[in-house]
Structure formats: structure tokens, C-alpha cells
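thought: fold this chain, then report.
action: predict
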Amino acid sequence: MTRLIARGLSCGYRERLVLDGVDLVVEPGELLALVGPNGAGKTTLFRALAGELPARSGEALIEVDGKALRAEGLHRRERARRIARVLQGERPAWAAPVRDYVAAGLFAELGWFSLSGKREEEGVEAALASAGARALADRPVTELSGGEFRRVLIARALAQGAEALLLDEPVAELDLAGQMAVLDLLKDLAASGAAVAFSVHDLNLAALAADKVAALAGGRIVALGRPREVLTPELIQRVYGSPVLVGDHPALDRPQISPIPPWSI
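observation:
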């Protein structure tokens, strides 16, 4: 079982500090939603947890079966065995077929120049199916819509077979059915024992799907807990500077957030 840990984590870029003393644990079997305004540091936190960005102080740890390892100290291929990432701004650089793009997720297991066998090919097909991208398999990635490409990125992450997943805006550019399908997949992955965290701007999607919500603002985690504990009118007003009403979802025991537009006040 894999657990991701930020302990007193501070990091940033050049002379700009983005995260300041962050404490967070992404537990196996848990789906965690990371929310916060633009520029709060959500992507930076995921980069640090994945070992891509060195800590200035504190540490980012990957704990595997009780043994904690510094994320940034692991070889890139070893990190890829442990953590799969879906990046927010990735765009295809060449017209590779979708199936080949997803197969790149096998890098951690096979290396760049090894040939895949039947088991690996079946893993790629299973990843495509799980991400709802099987029908796209033979199309060039450069000819996909934004939402279709998001599915391909998720399929590539699944092909890695990692026990921890960090997903930047995985439902961005997806229609309603696509959003629900991806969140359903993330919930299934967490239920299977994976440690899964995703960033999202839509607070209602965080409330609807997440086991826990972490609110990031000013480089710090300002609230962490169940959706009802975190997504309160007071917290949302403080973090986003926007008034909301918080009620009950009509069908689920989950909060539902309704913005109060300034033109109605």
C-alpha cells in the first residue's frame, strides 16, 4: 500500500515561495479533492508530492508498506512505478496513435526501448476501456478534442499500474457524462486501495465525489476533512472571496454549493 505525505513542506520557484509548511497525507483507499483559487499552489503541491520539485524545507515522502522514502530522491523510473500523474496543461507534441500514447505509461516497467508482450498489450487495452477511450485507440492524439485527450491522459496513468495517482483537473473540458464517468473511475480506484488525489475548481464535484477535501490558500492547507466539514459558507467566502449558500444535495448525503452572484445582491 502506498501513502503520499507532505510534512512541513515548503517549496516554490526561484525566489518565489508557493507552499509554506504544508502538512497533508493522501491515504490508500481514499479519494481526496484539492481545491483552492487560481494560483493557490495546487499543481505545485502535486509536483512536490511526486518528487518533481525539491523541497526548500520539510519533506515529501512516498510511504510503501510502512517504509517512507523521500520522493525527490527516487530515480525517475522508480517514482513512475509508485505515482501516476495527469498534468493539467499537457498537449500532444506529435501525431502518435492514441494506443501508442497510452502505452508510454509502461515506461516505468519496460523502459523506453523494450518491446511489450501480450500482458502489457492487454494492460493498455484495459486502461483504454477504463478511461472510456477505447473508441479513440487508433486516432492520432493531435486530432482529439480537449475532453477526449483528457481521457487518453487518464488511460496512460492507469497503464502505469501505480498505487498512487495525482490528477490535475482530470474533469476539465469534459461534458457532464464524461465528468461523472471519470469521477466514478477515481472512486473505484480508491476503493481498490489506491491513494488518489485530484484538483478541481468545481466545488460541487469535490463535494459529490471526494472522501476528503483539502482547501489550499496562501500556500497553506487551511482546511482538511469531510466535504461537509470543509465546504462551509464561511470557509468558501474566506478562501475564494465569494459568498455562497450551502445546502443539501437532493439525492445524496452531500453538501451542495450555490454561488450568490454579485448582481443579485
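thought: worth noting. The chain has one domain: 2-264.
final: C-alpha cells above.
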